[in-house]
Amino acid sequence: MATSTTPGAAKVAQNLSVAETKKLLHQIKNSKSVEIKVSVPTGEHQRVTLSMGIDPVEAQARHVFFFDTPDHALNRAGLIVRARRIPGGVADTVVKLRPVDPAGIDAELKRSDDFKVEVDAMPGGTFICSASYKGSVPSQDVVDVFHGMQTIRSLFSKEQRRFYDEHAPKGIDMNSLRMQGPILALRAKHKPKEYKRGITAELWLWNDGQHILEISTKCAPADAFQTAAEFRTLLEGHGVDLFAKQETKTRTAMEKFKADLKPRRRAGKKGKSARKRR
Question: Which of 64, 78, 93, 103 could form a disulfide with 183 if both were Cys (CB 3.0 to 4.6 A apart)?
Answer without folding.
Answer: 64
